[in-house]
């Protein structure tokens, strides 16, 4: 963290500058220091409504002058996206998402749940929904409800709920109704009380309730940051590329036709993913290159319509990374089985694995060709082919099938460092039950002595392959991969140990070592970390931060510091 911004004098100034307006709920926190060298407004005034300056008398000028100097120092430390070597995978949209990227939180709400008086929870009759996901009618003694902020990290304060149509909306859980008017509710949220429930109790049959919006404290329909929460924009403003794999619900996607895609008018983005218009808007605001993952079943028309919208809306100074689906070599995903079946149908191979690898190369080339035709060339495109970091043989099979390598620009891998802990153990790791008994320092030492060197070797191997075929080497995902698998995730002691390792200061050291190796051994091209913000659980601790209320972590702080210390050379 910047010494300037961490000094007691600055913190005292910031406490004054970012004090909330009179009458707004206080969080009781000190000024938010969002990573090294950043200052954000108070959490209860985050959307373009800065806290009031309460210094008075002869101290006013001194306070303002000192604050301006501190903030100028912070700005000098930041890095423009074009100079950054790092990208970020944005975490998927769901009611349990803890990033809260949108000013309108309803876009992360769970799809409507049907309830009936006297019936078990969620066991009401099938809901009558329109094509956008809004409820059209309710049966007697029934209602529909949705959840938000299931895993917390939402700011306490007053939320503004706007809607169209006629009916009755109630709140439950962590929400308390403050004021009610037709089409407008004001809700007090106490996130310590758990999720927020919005309950649709009555609907006018001809004018049903629709277009529900739930604005975070200080936000509104005409905020200067558009659909995005300003803290979200601030958090990722220094990253070169945004990979939208999870925002697009790429894994196991059911999208095939262009009409299947989500649109801004859909009730929530937690089911089909985030609309393309919103993703483009985000990249335009941040100056970040987009990385799109085409659904594995997408028709040529879908791909063409997608590419056309990007061509027409994306800033002309930004490039587009185009990838076919995600990890088609990975049998845990539906896209692998689809690729295997299609590869066999086309006669590429008899074995599922080989058929999937070869179909990946073949369909990727088709998709890239459509993008080239739509853009009128390749100047703004990066044609990505992805493979398994731990298995160079897979990469060779993909690149050599029908001389595919010459049709790609970049080879993408995910050189995670573990350990991945299984019930049976591995060559370098005993069974999960034993690892669960290790002192934390022993686990950290294993990462240092075994997991990091293994990941670095994967980088070296693929650097050689990329050089051989004249391709850039980039990372579609990267970072730590400490997780139990195959039943080991159910060992509570193991989960606690892996979580503690992720939160330990040593994890920052590991990230710096890892990124140094990426620069030294892999060439230092684009590295998209996985992932932005998500809560920690037995399924992993993937987020650089665990929630939007966090101002830093060993992982996040190390990444920001490394990014600023290792800029790309300026363009000639």
Can you describe what's shown?
Strands 18-16-15-14-13-12-1-20 form an eight-stranded parallel β-sheet. A four-stranded antiparallel β-sheet has the order 2-5-10-7, with no helix packed on it. A four-stranded antiparallel β-sheet has the order 8-9-6-11, with no helix packed on it. The chain has three domains: 3-77, no CATH class; 82-102 and 226-416 and 459-484 and 508-541, Glycosidases (TIM Barrel, Alpha-Beta Barrel), CATH 3.20.20.80; 105-215. The protein has helices at 3-6, 8-17, 59-77, 230-235, 276-286, 300-313, 334-345, 352-375, 392-400, 432-435, 440-468, 492-503, 505-521, 554-565; strands at 86-89, 113-116, 128-129, 135-137, 142-148, 157-164, 167-173, 175-181, 184-189, 196-203, 210-215, 241-243, 289-294, 320-324, 381-386, 410-413, 420-422, 472-475, 483-485, 527-530. The protein has 14 helices and 20 strands. The chain has 572 residues and is α/β, with parallel strands linked by helices. The protein is globular. Mean pLDDT is 89; it is low at 1-76. Helices cover 32% and strands 17% of the residues.
Helix count from the secondary structure assignment: 14
What is the 3D form?
A: globular
Main sheet properties:
8 strands, parallel
User: What is the share of helical residues?
Assistant: 25-40%
CATH top level of the largest domain is Alpha Beta
Looking at the overall shape, the CATH architecture of the largest domain is: Alpha-Beta Barrel
Provide mean pLDDT, rounded: 89
Q: Return Rg in Å.
A: 25 Å
Q: Largest beta sheet: what is the strand line-up? A: 18-16-15-14-13-12-1-20
CATH superfamily of the largest domain: Glycosidases
Number of extended strands: 20
Low-confidence stretches: 1-76
Strand content bin: 15-25%
The CATH topology annotation of the largest domain reads as TIM Barrel
Instruction: Give the total of domains.
Output: 3
């Amino acid at each position: 963290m910047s010494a300037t911004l961490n000094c007691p004098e600055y913190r005292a100034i910031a406490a004054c500058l970012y004090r909330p307006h009179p009458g707004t709920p206080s969080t009781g926190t000190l000024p938010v220091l969002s990573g090294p060298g950043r200052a954000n407004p108070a959490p209860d005034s985050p959307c373009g409504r800065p806290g009031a300056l309460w210094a008075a008398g002869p101290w006013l000028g001194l306070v303002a002058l000192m604050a301006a100097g501190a903030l100028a120092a912070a700005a000098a430390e930041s890095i423009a996206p074009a100079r950054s070597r790092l990208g970020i995978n944005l975490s998927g949209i769901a009611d349990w998402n803890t990033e809260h990227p949108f000013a309108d939180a309803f876009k992360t709400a769970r799809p409507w749940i049907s309830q009936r008086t006297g019936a078990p929870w969620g066991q009401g009759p099938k809901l009558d929904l329109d094509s956008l996901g809004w409820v059209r009618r309710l049966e007697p003694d029934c209602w529909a409800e949705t959840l938000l902020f299931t895993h917390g990290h939402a700011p306490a304060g007053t939320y503004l709920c706007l809607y169209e149509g006629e009916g009755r909306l109630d709140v439950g859980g962590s929400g308390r109704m403050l004021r009610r008017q037709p089409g407008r509710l004001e809700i007090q949220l106490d996130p310590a009380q758990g999720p927020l429930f919005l309950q649709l109790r009555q609907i006018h049959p001809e004018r049903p309730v629709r277009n529900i919006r739930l604005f975070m404290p200080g936000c509104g329909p005409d905020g200067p940051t558009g659909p995005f929460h300003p803290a979200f924009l601030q958090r990722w403003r220094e990253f070169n590329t945004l990979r939208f794999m999870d925002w697009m619900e790429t894994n196991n996607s059911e999208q095939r036709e262009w009409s299947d895609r989500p649109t801004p008018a859909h009730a929530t983005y937690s089911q089909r993913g985030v609309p393309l218009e919103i993703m483009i808007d985000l990249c335009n605001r941040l100056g970040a290159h987009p990385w799109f993952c085409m659904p594995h079943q997408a028709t040529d028309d879908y791909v063409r319509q997608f590419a056309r919208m990007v061509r027409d809306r994306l800033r002309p100074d930004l490039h587009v990374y185009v990838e076919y689906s995600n990890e088609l070599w990975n049998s845990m995903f539906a896209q692998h089985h689809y690729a295997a079946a299609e590869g066999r149908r086309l006669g590429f191979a008899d074995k599922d694995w080989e058929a999937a690898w070869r179909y990946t190369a073949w369909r990727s080339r088709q998709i890239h060709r459509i993008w080239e035709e739509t853009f009128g060339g390749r100047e703004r495109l990066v044609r990505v082919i992805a493979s398994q970091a731990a298995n160079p043989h897979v990469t060779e099979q993909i690149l050599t099938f029908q001389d595919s390598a010459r049709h790609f620009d970049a080879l993408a891998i995910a050189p995670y460092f573990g350990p991945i802990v299984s019930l049976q153990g591995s060559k370098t790791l005993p069974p999960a039950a034993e690892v669960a008994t290790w002192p934390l320092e022993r686990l950290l030492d294993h990462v240092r002595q075994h997991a990091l060197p293994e990941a670095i070797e994967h980088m070296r191997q693929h650097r050689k392959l990329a050089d051989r075929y004249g391709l850039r080497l980039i990372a579609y995902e990267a970072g730590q991969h400490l997780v139990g698998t195959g039943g080991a995730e159910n060992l509570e002691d193991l989960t606690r140990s892996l979580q503690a390792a992720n939160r330990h200061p040593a994890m920052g050291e590991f990230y710096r070592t890892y990124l140094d190796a990426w620069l030294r051994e892999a060439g230092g091209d684009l590295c998209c970390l996985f992932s932005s913000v998500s809560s920690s659980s037995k399924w992993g601790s993937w987020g650089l931060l665990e929630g939007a209320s966090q101002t830093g972590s060993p992982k996040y702080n190390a990444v920001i510091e490394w990014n600023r210390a290792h800029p790309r050379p300026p363009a000639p």
